[in-house]
Amino acid sequence: MSYSLPELSYDYSALEPHISARIMELHHSKHHQAYVTGANGALEAMAEARETGAFANINRLEKDLAFHLGGHINHSIFWTNLHPDGGGAPEGELAAAIDEFFGSIDGFKAHFTAASMGIQGSGWGVLSWDPIGKQMIIQQLFDQQGNTAQGTIPLLQLDMWEHAFYLDYVNVKADYVAAFWNIVNWENVAARLEAARSGASASLLIS
Fold it and tell me: What are the residue ranges spanned by the domains of the chain?
């Protein structure tokens, strides 16, 4: 099975002024598409290696698959975490969980912002569900695939690669992160949390 670029549920211009149509178009149609193409290419090369028995490049192919598939999954989640009518504050079970695990919504936002801003190089700020500890945690994801705990389930992701913000915010990452809070789709995050707690998170991975 090959991967494909998911369609967005909103127009490229829908998130303005927080994220411009130009960034959304490039980010989705170029950057995300490149990850899809790379993941499919790695799978095809692995299939050829199995057919020929030539596994000399298997280490590189495994790294390629992890990187490109990571990029595909991360972006697929990111798009659903955003909404033109987003922002405000979470409600219900999500709000209660944030209060339980982070003390308050302000404490959560401060922690998530600091973790995202503190990424050295490229990566993501991630709010995840830990199914072992049964708690929400904030993680720094390096590049597209490194440094997060195995088995944690992403609920909210913020792309901190320069391609996500540079045309709009240049190098002022703080303004980009501040703008992000105006378009967070808390309903999507709440649905992901509910699914993760029930063990049905796979169905909400990119929906």
Answer: 21-81, 92-204
